Amino acid sequence: MSQLINSILVFLVLTGFMLLSSSRLAACIRAIAIQGVLLGVLAIAMQDGRLSTVGVLLPLITAAVKGLVLPWLLFRAMREADAVREVEPLISYNLSIMTGAAALALSLWLGQRLQLPSHASPPLQVPAAFFTSLVGVIVIVSRRKALTQVLGYLALENGVYAFGAAAALRLPVLVELGILLDVFAGVFVMGIAIFHISREFDHIDTDKLAALTDRLR
Amino acid sequence: MIKLLVLIPACTGIAAFFIASDRVRRVLLISAALAQTVLSFAAWVVQPAPALGGWLAEDALGRLIETLTSVLFLAAAVYAVAYLREERHQAHNDFEEGFIFSNAREANFTGCLLLFLAAMTLVAVSQQLALLWVAVEATTLASAPLIYFHRHHRSLEAAWKYLLICSVGIALALLGIFFLAIAATNEDGSTISLMVQDLRLNAHLLNVPWFKAAFVLLLVGYGTKMGLAPFHTWLPDAHSEAPSVASALLSGALLNCAFLGILRVQEICVAGGLARFSDRLLLIFGLLSMAVAAVFISGQTDYKRMLAYSSVEHMGILAVGVSLGGAAVFGAVLHMINHSLTKAMLFLVAGNLLAVYRTKNPGGIRGALSVLPASGVLWLLGLFAITGSPPFGPFLSEFTILKGALDQGKTLVAIAYLAILAVILAAMAAPALAMAQGRPSEDVTAAPSRSIALSVVPAMLGVGVLVMGIYLPPVLTRVLRQAAHLLG
């Protein structure tokens, strides 16, 4: 089982790099979709064979929402905004990948420092979760397109979710569903916002959203 | 009964999206707000039974915030109906840049208002910390469309920043919740539930390093939502671009709810003997917020932004008050009420000024007392109240916090606190006086048809602010004491 978990975690890290290195929005959305499915599988694999109906159903729902529904929303937003590529990120793709490598190193170091108190988890687990979150933060601050920033937010959220799975936290079902509903509604509202941004500005570059500042005397 | 508090606004909110008639929808908005307020006050007489296995229950702190939210929402709902009637459905001329814009559908605005209330109520009555997180995130999603009511590029920018910055902050808070769950896992694998009550009783069993990390993440996450510096950057944009009635709710009600997220963890810190750690962090962020606000209030050329930065200042005051412990905590909880009432009133009055003068620059407003007598007087009194002048409520609570600091011998904190308050008083009093007095320019005339509700609602809130400064009902004092007791 730990074989499977480890390969999922490696794939999770790879999708992080995919997100950092690709300029095509479609590829980035696919990376997020793959992450969603991986998280579902991870949550099931973490249960160590002691499967319950809820324990399988919840990860499946998560995987369906994060792997199918959200990407569908995002693809729709992409078409409506008529955006294909992230043209000029604020930091270049090479630099993004290097930052990603640094983030991976940081995550590995953090993972060694932070020992989960109660049980032994595979050594890659916490670092992979932190790395995914850090990739999200990097994408949010270094990309211009509103859509890419939403992808960054989702990566951040996926990282947090992966951390929860890694720690094998058992949150009440209602809470898990609530969290999922919030993420879904969040992306839904952001999708509407992207639609309006593209209509208002004819593009979705958020660095043009800079009219509001303090004008002090 | 507790379920009803959440369900009434949630169901009416969803219904509002589908009601075509403006009249029916407005009646629905007012009646839902009224029902909610009546229920909130009923809960002061009859302690409502916990629901959902104890997940939803009212303790002293939750009840205070819940009631405050209902009262402000009722005020906002009455004001909103008058406001929406005057806005009508035509295209508007932007007074800053001169382009034409339209408003969002009124049905969507009303629906989001009610859903926003439902989410805030859920925050106030949640006893389960993960459920509280879900509710806080829901407040963001319900309120973002409110900011984008006027469909133009500035409000869109404000709404986008709000959505993104707060969502990222809240994602960090979720990590904080997970850390907390890890801290609540014992050596033998047994866990403490994420109920506030359980965590408080078993606080000494928590794994300290994980709990401290959880506190930091939750402070940053909810602090973003609450507008603590340096995470406050979305706040002035959102508050200045949202319609005034939404700004009043964001500032008066939402910020308290976000603060409640932090207070719930603070309760656990106090119970677990970790208050020294959490107090220091709260003090640093509190003073920083006050200082940052003072810088941006001085010379501010947009009076809605000025009010927004004043909210950052007051959130700082709340954090400082809670961090000091003892009598100052009582002052902080009291200040939460005073700030909410005063700030909601000021934003509503600002909406009136904006509608007549069509500028957000305080330099462009003269003679408010003669053009809009009611709003002019309220504006002047409100600004004096919010800067801590007697005999209004904020004076009393700010003074209590100061006294708390001096009692504990924290002279440096007291000096910094007083100095910042003095700077802000000076920075806000001058434009306030200039706006109220003087002769208005020729082309400014009050539209005679303006609804009386637009002045009466803020006036009622103003009366509340004044009463809070003069007389505290014993029942309120008792609940305030109970709330303060849990926070050290």
Give the quaternary arrangement of the chains: heterodimer
Number of helices of chain B: 19
Instruction: Work out the helicity level of chain B.
Output: over 70%
Query: Cα distance, first to last residue of chain B?
Result: 30 Å
Number of helices of chain A: 7
The topology string of helices and strands of chain A comes to HHHHHHH
- Main interface by residue count: A-B, 45 and 54 residues
Mean pLDDT of chain A: 87
What's the count of strands of chain B? 3
Characterization of the model:
The complex is a heterodimer of chains A (217) and B (488). Chain A has one domain. Chain A is 73% helix and 0% strand. Chain A has 7 helices and no strands. Chain A has helices at 2-21, 25-45, 53-81, 93-113, 125-142, 146-166, 173-201. Chain A is globular, with a radius of gyration of 18 Å. By secondary structure, chain B is mainly α. Chain B has 19 helices and 3 strands. Chain B has helices at 2-18, 22-45, 60-87, 106-125, 129-147, 153-183, 196-201, 208-226, 234-241, 244-271, 275-297, 303-324, 327-357, 368-371, 373-386, 393-407, 411-436, 453-470, 474-486; strands at 92-93, 100-103, 150-151. A 3-stranded antiparallel β-sheet of chain B has the order 1-2-3. In chain B, α10 (244-271) runs antiparallel to α11. Chain B is globular and about 75 Å long. Chain B starts with a helix and ends with a helix. The relative contact order of chain B is 0.10. The mean pLDDT of chain B is 92. Chains A and B meet through α5, α6 and α7 of A and α5, α6 and α9 of B.
